[in-house]
Amino acid sequence: MAVTVKASLGKTKYYTEVIAGENRLITDEPTDKGGQNKGFNPFEILATSLASCTAATLRMYIDRKEWNVENIDVEVELENFPLTKLAVFKRNISFEGSELSEEQLKRLHAIADACPVHKILLNEIEIQTKFS
After folding, report:
1. Which of 25, 40, 59, 85 has CB atoms 3.0–4.6 Å from 44's, for a disulfide?
2. Contact at 8 Å (CB) between 49 and 40?
3. Neighbour-count burial for 99-130, b at 16+ CB within 10 Å, e otherwise
4. How far is CA 65 from CA 35, 82, 109, in A?
5. Which residue from 43, 36, 42 is spatially nearest to 11, judged by alpha carbons?
6. Which domain of life is it from (predicted)?
7. Averaged in consecutive runs of 10 residues, what is the pLDDT profile of the chain (132 residues)?
């Protein structure tokens, strides 16, 4: 599955419009980095990808199993250590309005790890750049 997004940045420092199909979002940098803090910064978008994919993957599985779970909360903290080339994603998942057994929670942990974004982040990543 391939996706295409386009980011456009004019002269307003770091205020970037991102388009994917018919959807748009704004990214920006915090004010302490020269931006206006009008949108997610790029690291927040990366963490958002893991959080939202995890939540959707869990919801699909929970619905298929017909388990009664009101709400799935996924919090992701991303720490980047450029000097050691290490990025650490800390993911905390909680379920509201449910009584899940230890066995169900164990299965949901495996399902969370099977989310497509999680898999991509664990793979070797190659970035190919072309100027046009």
Report:
1. 40
2. no
3. eeeeebeeebeebbeebebbeeeeeeeeeeee
4. 45, 41, 15
5. 36
6. Bacteria
7. 93 96 96 95 96 98 96 98 96 94 97 97 95 94
